[in-house]
Write a structure and sequence with these properties.
With about 250 residues, the protein is an alpha+beta fold. It has a domain of about 170 residues: Beta Barrel (Cyclophilin). The chain contains 4 helices and 10 strands, in the order αββαββββαβαβββ.
Length: about 250
């Protein structure tokens, strides 16, 4: 199942912005100063609560910040794949211009790698699929995510959790965001696409290779729980206006 091609739109009316800003400023004045980072017994600063991962790609580097406080299982799964070297040599095999870029499972030959077991879906975590966010790809079953992930190129609120009625309403779990290299994401998004290998379309030309994926610094140790991607290409005859991150 892949997310429908959406029409980008704001989640809140523009008129609410002044009120939100005023409220935020009032809260900031009243809030006590933040405590300094805790230091270990050796005097070193503790590891950041939000680990970061650097993806070195054939088109440039992308750094993502992860949110274990919001999506602990999804982050642990992603970090496990990173530390296992799973993503090294995989590609971004799916690009839908003005929508998303997806990768994390296929080799340069467009052959899928063997993954860890799928993990529970954590889409109901309050995070929205906004531009630059990182989300877990999956199949029709919400609890089918493994290694694939996608980066939202625009705001895609229709990919958010709505309810637990079915896979369509469950949404896609956001578990991080791009903090460096969004220009690289945009370059990938602008590549020409077409059919290649087992896919009927959306494969970028040239293929963008993830040369390496590494945790920056001494980040959190993941739990042995993996994530699975969204699989299943939409048929070539399907309307171009509606696609979802599919599990391939």
């Amino acid at each position: 199942m892949s997310p429908d091609r959406p029409v980008p739109r704001r989640l809140l009316p523009a008129l609410t912005a002044p009120f939100v800003l005023a409220f935020a400023l009032a809260q900031a004045r009243a809030a006590p100063p933040l405590p300094a980072p805790a230091a270990s017994s050796s005097g070193t600063v503790a590891a950041p609560a939000h680990p970061q991962v650097e993806l070195k790609t054939s088109m440039g580097d992308i750094v993502v910040e992860l949110f274990p406080d919001k999506a602990p299982k999804t982050v642990a799964n992603f970090l496990q794949y990173v530390k296992d070297g799973f993503y090294d040599g995989t590609v971004f095999h799916r690009v839908i211009p003005g929508y998303l870029i997806q990768g994390g499972l296929y080799t340069r030959e467009l052959r899928p790698k063997r993954t860890l077991p799928p993990i529970p879906d954590e889409a109901n975590n309050g995070l929205s699929n906004l531009r630059g966010t990182l989300a877990a790809a999956r199949g029709p079953d919400p609890d089918s995510a493994t290694a694939q992930f996608f980066v939202n190129v625009v705001d895609n609120p229709r990919l958010d959790y709505i309810g637990n009625q079915n896979g369509m309403t469950w949404g896609y779990a956001v578990f991080g965001k791009v903090v460096k290299g969004m220009d690289v994401v945009d370059k990938i998004d602008n590549l020409p696409t077409g059919p290649q290998g087992p896919f009927i379309g959306d494969v970028p030309r040239p293929l963008v290779v993830i040369e390496s994926a590494k945790v920056i610094g001494e980040a959190a140790h993941p739990v042995a729980e993996p994530v699975s991607p969204v699989t299943g290409q939409v048929p070539a005859s399907a309307p171009a206006a509606k696609k979802k991150p599919a599990k391939h």
